[in-house]
Amino acid sequence: MPRRAVVVALRSPYKCSACKADWDVQCPTCAGCGVLQELPTQWNAFEVLGIDPALALNSDSLRERFYALSKQTHPDRFITADPQTALRAARWSTAVNRAYQTLRDQEGRVQVLRSAFSLPPFAAASKVPMELAETYFDLQDALTEPGSAEHLIDFKKQLIEKQAGLTHDWEALEASWLEAPHSEARKALLEKAANQLTVRRFLRSMLEDLEKKQGMAS
């Protein structure tokens, strides 16, 4: 099993807007003067939460990081602050929430990573992936032609086995990410990840169609 961790990342140093000291800690406020900093507009979801970009994230650690940042930036803490600081808090709070919702999902992580590596976003493919083509058309035959319930059960087992295989392949991608130090290697992994997510979508759709047919036959 690949190592799943949320690692606090070291952001590039910034200057505090108030005291001009270096602001490079994993905290929305300056360690020196305590002033809430402006959220850099160029930060992606990983940077907003202050974690290393990765395909695999530990859900518990991610949630803990989210709660910690939410507590620090919640607008209620800055009710009596000046309007500029209150606005900063609102921006931080919104960005932290959005980043958490994005990164807790595998597809969301892949989209953010593809953008970070200057790759186009992946969209739901309209064509059946090559590796599923034969299975897909066999399923269409099974769904439209009279057949035994046992045949549909066997087909469902095949689809579930394919899903299990995809889970294993995804874990291999996560492990490869940690072992790939160069951007070109990681770009290649992101292409594989996008393809696998497309295959997953089709598999889910196929299982839903099959289960619907089973329900009608029962």
Sum up the structure in keywords.
218 residues, mainly alpha, two-stranded antiparallel ribbon, 60% helix, 2% strand, elongated
Descriptive notes:
- The protein is mostly helical and 218 residues long.
- It contains 7 helices and 2 strands; from the N terminus they run ββααααααα.
- A two-stranded antiparallel sheet has the order 1-2.
- A hairpin with a 6-residue loop joins strand 1 and strand 2.
- Helix 6 runs antiparallel to helix 7.
- The two termini are 39 Å apart.
- The mean pLDDT is 87.
Task: Give the gist of this structure.
With 218 residues, the chain is mostly helical. 60% of the residues lie in helices and 2% in strands. Strand 1 (14-15) and strand 2 (22-23) form a beta hairpin.
Total number of strands: 2
Low-confidence segments, ≥5 residues, pLDDT <50? Answer: none
**DSSP strand (E) fraction?**
under 5%
Structure class: mainly alpha
Q: How much helix, percentage-wise, in residues?
A: 55-70%
Mean pLDDT, nearest integer? Answer: 87
Task: Tell the overall outline.
Answer: elongated
Q: Output the helix-strand order.
A: EEHHHHHHH
What's the gyration radius in Å?
23 Å
